[in-house]
Write a structure and sequence with these properties.
elongated, 6% strand, two-stranded antiparallel ribbon, 2 domains, six-stranded mixed beta sheet, 690 residues, homodimer, alpha/beta
């Protein structure tokens, strides 16, 4: 009956994992072939730790390509892996260059107006946006491994930096300190990004799930859009806060201080005592109709061009060229009507010249250092997530690899260098990268071309932006962020996975109503709780045999699967951990009770054996082992046998080490449910049991 | 070839889950029986939510016994489930009572000295310890469902309360406020425990894993033992802190203030300027040799009796009676030598009489409320964990059920009532429950007997404790907590699961060196990170066929398992979540690359198909679905087919909803690896491929 064979592989010959076969002949009747369950090859604790560390930190096996190479080749490969430019630089030719010039100029026409706009979103001087479109792309071209990433400031990171810093420091009252903090945050963002890459902790950004990001981006886009109402409606005094409620009250309730002051004066003179409540009734809004008209015109133009390009990707250049064209036209208009009206506010003087060094502005001590570090880490994570996601998207379209950890180092060094050359946080922008890809970019040279165009602008063209109206910058931002509200993705989440949709909503409303970092934290917390909940309350299901086969499947799903009299076959669909060991033990006992009630009702064969299919139990800890042991003890008191089927390698090893296998007895462990049923049935028959 | 059959069950007949069988006949050669993969029965989102909520909050199906009952029976069952005393009270007889009296008196002889000692551990007046051994056991006898739990103050909760409260409020300088905070904390502990039970959140205490508790208890026991050095060595001035370092420095460096002052005076007079460093050289320790001698004598007696009882459980009464006997003897000794020496400090006057009401001392506002709530929650969790664990242990020995959530409510109400009657936090004590069990307790009446003995003590015997020396209380605590250091359990953790051992050490050193709440938080954090790490970096393994069978098993474990030419069979051992979707995708592509390198090396058959065994993939989310989709797209670019095998119910449903199954094509989904291999091979043969 197979009991004579030692069914657990002997530990003394650990690598000789042959599945010893025992043929069970019970009373000369049935012949059942029984396979033993192997222990995995023996490893020391150190080997296991090494494998585990390699799995966690080096899943891509980065040193593999260096094996079996000469030293010279290794140096070349090392240089190539540090500076990807060496990989493609050697066979770069004129044809590739032609494509890159076209795409580089196209993204430059987007990057210049967007740079100026996004800097304003971060409450920084517009010129900083252009500086940030010059140095970082050059550095990325040398270090980065994506061929299509268009590097520069992006809306989300700009928004978050602006909102977090201006909560503590006013960009208008304390502009120098604000600028210092912005550069310092950028430095810490870079440092954090580079360290994540160096320490190979890149997997941490995986915890920002797709669902979290969809909600977060949409929430941030709504806030940015609302903020643009300031520029779009020509309001002068506006809240510095980022939440929905203060912004909306800014739009509808704020008047200029002058008029407020005036009202108080008037009331005071009338009644000889100030009536502060009186100006609650006043509804004079401080909107400028000229600005609104201009804004609406250009907004409809930009949205139309965006719509056209989305419909026909070949016409990408329409939406790519539209922002620069709008800037030029609107600047001309304002220039022409400058003597007639002053209602439309414009940028004004911008300094000419290249990035000034800013390393002396980094701020490593003092009261605001904690704020700078916090802002740096959050903008760092967000810009990294965007950069990596965009890089991976286009790499997958063209079927090449973007290495996450290396990309993090590239983005990190780019930001650290940027913080010393008057740049703020930059990363790969989704919209510009898409344009870059569609315009036929072939290598990172398109970033160099773009940087050169920005260089020319910085050196010679800055005075041309004097009359550029602020409203056009608001319109450019609006058009860019409206595309970030991905309601279709949210709808798909709702359809496929309600819990993911819930995470998405948490992150959306958290960002909109609470704050950017807290909203993100809530969404990550909810996603982690989902994982923990799945582990805490795992699924168990009863299996039955599909007649005529050796297949055992869930009775709930497969109608023709049928119970085997005398057996209760349960599958546990989760690792058995401290968090679920008590639950699983109780749940299995409940299955047993329910099965016995059913048996009484239908007068079926008495239950004799519980088979636990452990195929999906991918890990077990000491609490889990204790639960299995306790379960066996309690079932034994009810004269029921417990049998384990197909524990995976690590589980098998721990069962062995904790002596549970010995306590289960020889017939307590099988490789498949079918073999367990066959062997146990034949044993019972041989013993004359029904 | 089975392609003609619709292999995914039609959604329109969701409950008709018959595994449609298709017989594949490829070129008249092979006959392969193919089973289709079923979708689980269709359920609305609400039904799913309901099932999920029931799984999480009502895993024990508490209303099951009320079904199919008359209203009268339901009322009786309801009363019985609220007050378990009604369940066993009706058939209680003299024989049971006799057992309960014996065990009740035995635990009373332990409870009285321990009550006084533990109250001192919590920096409370000794009498509060006796009060706490009177009211709570009576309440538990009515509400509790364990038959063997001996209720009263316990060492860990007393220690934690003492350490947390005395960090902010001095028990000697502000005794009334301290007492108020102790009762308030007890109230919040009870409230928290009862709410956990009422809201059925009992599973939260499962997050304190066995490993965490072993480390925590040992750390707390070390601290308590060190604290007892004060009593044992007769030191007068001692630190109020609980960490290792301040306690050790208290033992070896502190002298009485008088001598310090004296030394400074001396130095000052000598040199005319204070030399503060000078008294670092002085080693006059403030130990009292009489106390040390007495302590050592009784310590060795108590440890010996404990050792005897552990060796022979029948002699449990020796260790049970020893503490009371020691108290009596030592009190007599001190009484007799009271005129000769005052070196041995004793308890002094204790008030006579029953528990005074203390509801007027509860403190629901003011500066220390947050501290009281925090202390309440932490002592609440700890005492709950101990109570439930002890209850379950003895219930499992006698094979009856202790309902976690109901037990939480019982302990919670007991503490809330206690806080109004001058009691501090109580729960089921492990040592006293073990004695209770060994002394033959049959029902909770033993608690009533114990409470009556405490009542008699409170009313008549209090003056007898006047000369009880403090050193004997220290010895009793020491003996009790030394048993809590379970080094064997720690060694077993080390042997079976290194990570659990690490958790255990985190909790041990966290409690010892940092603080009780932080140490616990660190250990829980580490345990949760372990779960997340397992999900973030799941195991994947390559499977092969065991010749002559339809069994596919890990190539690493089963030596005779062999690869099937043209196939790469991979098993994923984890749910596919946002946290691991990128990793899994990359890891599977790496498996493919490595397999292709191997094939090149050995000139084997070209790889044509990747089979993903999804049996252990117990869940999938939208990021996971996207990863599968993307994986399929990338494999297709390399002309490789992706086939999924045996996805479980929920995974199958989501694959269906997200249209991935359609995109996989008809031959992209199989029930077993064997069927997939057979069907695909025959298809290739029919198409004339090698």
């Amino acid at each position: 009956m197979g009991h004579g064979t030692n069914r657990v592989e002997d530990m003394s010959s650990p690598n000789n994992g042959t599945a010893a076969t025992a043929t069970a002949t019970a009373g000369g009747e049935t012949i059942v072939e029984i396979h033993s369950v192997c222990l995995p090859p023996k490893k020391t604790a150190f080997q296991k730790l090494k494998k585990r560390v390699a799995d966690v930190f080096f899943p891509d096996d980065p040193l593999q390509r260096f094996r079996n190479q000469t030293w010279r080749n290794r140096v070349i490969l090392g240089l190539q892996s540090l500076f990807p430019i060496f990989t493609w630089g050697s066979h770069y030719d004129l044809k590739l260059f032609r494509s890159d010039v076209v795409s580089g100029l196209t993204i430059a026409s987007l990057a210049i107006p967007q740079g100026i706009s996004y800097a304003k979103l971060a409450n920084l001087p517009p010129i900083v946006g252009l500086y940030s479109s010059f140095v970082p792309p050059l550095i990325y071209a040398v270090l980065g491994s994506s061929k299509h990433l268009a590097v520069g400031p992006v809306s989300i990171a700009s928004l978050v930096m602006g909102s977090m810093l201006s909560e503590s420091v006013s960009p208008t009252q304390d502009p120098i300190l604000y600028l210092q903090l912005a550069f310092t945050s950028t430095f810490f963002a870079g440092l954090f990004q580079a360290s994540l890459g160096l320490l190979r902790l890149g997997f941490l950004i995986d915890f920002l799930s797709k669902a979290t990001l969809v909600g977060f981006t949409a929430g941030a886009a709504v806030i940015v859009s609302l903020q643009q109402l300031k520029g779009l409606l020509g309001i002068v005094h506006f809240t510095g806060k980022m939440q929905f409620i203060p912004v909306m009250s800014s739009v509808f309730n704020h008047r200029s201080e002058v008029s407020q002051h005036h009202l108080i004066e008037v009331n005071y003179n009338k009644s000889k005592q100030p009536r502060f409540f009186s100006y609650n009734n006043v509804t004079i809004l401080q909107w400028s109709w000229e600005t609104i008209v201009m804004g609406m015109c250009f907004l409809s133009i930009l949205l139309t061009t965006r719509h056209i390009s989305m419909r026909k990707p070949k016409l990408f250049w329409i939406s790519a060229a539209a922002p620069l064209a709008s800037v030029i036209i609107s600047t001309l208009v304002v220039f022409l009507i400058r003597s007639k009206t002053h209602a439309i506010s414009y940028i004004g003087h911008l300094p000419k010249g290249l990035n000034p060094p800013s390393s002396n502005m980094l701020y490593f001590s003092g009261a605001h250092l904690a704020l700078a570090i916090k802002t740096g880490i959050i903008t760092g994570i967000l810009s990294l997530t965007e950069g990596i996601a965009v890089g991976r998207t286009f790499a997958s379209l063209k079927n090449y690899q973007v290495n996450g950890n290396k990309e993090m180092m590239a983005i990190g060094f780019m930001n650290m260098a940027g913080s010393c050359t008057s740049c703020y946080v930059t990363t790969g922008s989704f919209s510009r990268s898409a344009v870059n890809y569609n315009a036929g970019a072939k290598t990172a040279v398109s970033n160099i071309v773009m940087a050169s165009a920005v260089l020319v602008t910085l050196l010679f063209l800055m005075p041309l932006f004097y009359y550029t109206p602020n409203v056009i910058l608001a319109v450019i931002i609006l058009t860019a962020v409206i595309g970030l509200i991905d309601y279709q993705a949210a709808y798909k989440l709702w359809k496929v996975d309600k819990f993911d949709f819930f995470t998405c909503m948490c992150s959306f409303f958290g960002v909109l109503l609470v704050s950017v970092p807290l909203g993100l934290a809530i969404a990550v917390g909810v996603s982690v709780i989902k994982i923990l909940l799945h582990v805490t309350r795992p699924n168990t299901s009863e299996f039955g045999n599909i007649p005529g086969t050796q297949i055992y499947q869930s009775l709930g799903r497969y109608r023709e699967a049928s119970r085997i009299p005398g057996f209760l076959i349960l599958a546990v669909e989760s690792p058995i951990y401290f968090a679920n060991s008590t639950y699983l033990q109780e749940r299995i006992l409940r299955w047993t009770r329910e099965e016995e009630t059913r048996i009484k009702e239908f007068n079926a064969t008495t239950l004799k054996c519980i088979i636990l299919d452990m195929t999906a139990v991918s890990a077990i800890d000491t609490s889990g082992l204790e639960a299995v042991f306790e379960l066996r003890r309690r079932l034994e008191k009810q004269s029921l046998q417990l049998v384990l089927v197909n524990p995976v390698g690590t589980v098998m090893e721990k069962l062995h080490k904790s002596k549970i296998i010995e306590s289960l007895g020889l017939s307590g462990l099988y490789l498949t449910v079918g073999e367990a049923v066959a062997d146990l049935s034949s044993t019972w028959k041989a013993n004359g049991q029904p």
